[in-house]
Automatic annotation (TrEMBL):
This is Aminotransferase. NCBIfam families: PRK09257.1. GO terms for biological process: L-phenylalanine biosynthetic process from chorismate via phenylpyruvate. Residues 27-389 form the Aminotransferase class I/classII large domain. Keywords: Aminotransferase, Pyridoxal phosphate, Transferase. It comes from Amaricoccus macauensis. Homodimer.
Length: 394
């Protein structure tokens, strides 16, 4: 049977991580995979997570199955974290999923089940798993222009010009904040404009929210999402707790669907449950319980927010520092966008050859499209990185 299988290309980001691990140089710098690292290069277990895990260890008295939609308290609390009070609770249905990836996958299945003719529109560029999952599921898809390589910002005019070709019922996939891979984000005014378009065109927004709290703060990062949610009849939302709770390997996320009415929401909910059953039956429990404990306990929540905020502040410091060093090293302001980008990533605009040179000559690992993970940078590496970029550019 297996002799019929064709070679399957590995995920480029994961492949890069393996190359980094195999590199014997001690001075190497991993700016590839999107994992937060502190000043010591460690990806910590957050304090509130440790405390909640201890509590769970002491109090959990059964490992029996959770419900098919997971822990509904978790789903409700995570929905509130993302959506605030923008939508009445009875229009929101959600399912706990294995990570944000699991949420995206379940939502794509829901789209396919609801409207097989819908085309899903995603930004060029986007996180590679988006097009990969769309292709795997055979869902029609198209891209819209997003990034202006010349300025490092969003090419909003081009984006809106491309969206005009969307048909009613098509799905518009957006990054909620901290766009991966570019780091360039819509302003709140632009979110409002996209919202007006979505309502008029009768298209369904699908927001991938994987970095809430990593950009401008927990509330600010959700502002565009909430504005849109309040205005549209239907919306889809994939939430990941991998980054903002540091729960990467525990696989924690939620697929959330906003329906037009409470009656329709009950049907959406039953479909989410059926899709979960068809894929994995019950979602993994541990990480979601930890998140629910944190979000429902004021002291744990305050400590989680404080730690998240210090992670965010550290990334912003690194951005400012790198932008300054790049000014100095290149004697120009053309990399100033690094300071205005938000989240873990910035796309530098280097050629694939220059990215290879960074790796081979300097041991600096960036993704092939010249995406760097800001959080992978130790403060003492800023000068080295800026000098290396200036060198491969000249
Ligand atoms: N969406 C985007 C844009 C991402 O960058 C990621 C990766 O971290 C995810 C979703 C999902 O991550 P996970 O499945 O680890 O929660
Ligand atoms: O873009 C990144 O680096 C993160 C981590 O298949 C990641 O989103 C990368 C690839 C992948 C899953 C997660």
């Amino acid at each position: 049977m297996f002799e019929t299988l064709k070679p399957s290309p590995p995920d480029k980001i994961i492949e890069l991580l393996e190359m980094f691990r195999a590199d014997p140089r001690t001075e190497k710098l991993d700016l590839g995979v999107g994992v937060y690292k502190d000043a010591n290069g460690k990806t910590p277990v957050m304090r509130a997570v440790k405390a909640a895990e201890k509590r769970l260890l002491d109090t959990q008295d059964s490992k029996s199955y959770v419900g098919i939609l997971g822990d509904l308290e978790f789903v409700k609390l995570l929905g509130e974290l993302a959506l605030g009070s923008s939508v009445p609770a009875d229009r929101i249905a959600g399912a706990q999923t294995p990570g944000g990836t699991g949420a995206i996958r379940q939502i794509l299945e829901l789209i396919k089940r609801s409207n097989p003719a819908a085309t899903v529109w995603y930004s060029d560029p986007t996180w590679p798993n988006h097009p990969a999952m769309l292709a795997h599921l055979g869902i029609p898809s198209r891209t819209y222009r997003y990034f202006d390589a010349a300025t490092g910002g969003v090419d909003f005019a081009a984006m809106m010009a491309d969206l005009v070709a969307m048909k009613p019922g098509d799905v518009l996939l957006l990054h909620g904040c901290c766009h991966n891979p570019t780091g360039a984000n819509l302003t709140l005014e632009q979110w409002a404009e996209v919202t007006d378009f979505v309502v008029k065109a009768g298209v369904v927004p699908f927001i991938d929210l994987a970095y809430q709290g990593f950009g401008d703060g927990l509330e600010a990062d959700a502002a565009g999402v909430r504005h849109m949610a309040a205005a549209v009849p239907e919306m889809l939302l994939a939430v990941s707790c991998s980054k903002n709770f540091g729960l990467y390997r525990d696989r924690v996320g939620a697929a959330i669907a906003i329906s037009e009415t409470a009656e329709k929401s009950a049907i959406t909910k039953a479909n989410l449950a059926s899709l979960s059953r068809l894929n994995f039956s019950f979602p993994p429990d541990h990480g979601a319980k930890v998140v629910a404990l944190i979000l429902s306990d004021p002291a744990l929540k305050a400590d989680w927010q404080a730690e998240l905020e210090s992670m965010r502040a550290g990334m912003l410091e690194l951005r400012k520092g790198l932008a300054n060093e790049l000014r100095r090293a290149t004697n120009s302001d053309r990399f100033d966008f690094v300071g205005t980008h938000r989240g873990m990533f910035s796309r530098l605009g280097l050629s694939p050859e220059q990215v290879v040179k960074l790796r081979e000559d300097f041991g600096i690992y960036a993704v092939g499209d010249s995406r760097i993970n800001i959080a992978g940078l130790p403060a003492q590496g800023l000068g080295k990185l800026a000098a290396a970029i200036a060198s491969v550019e000249s």
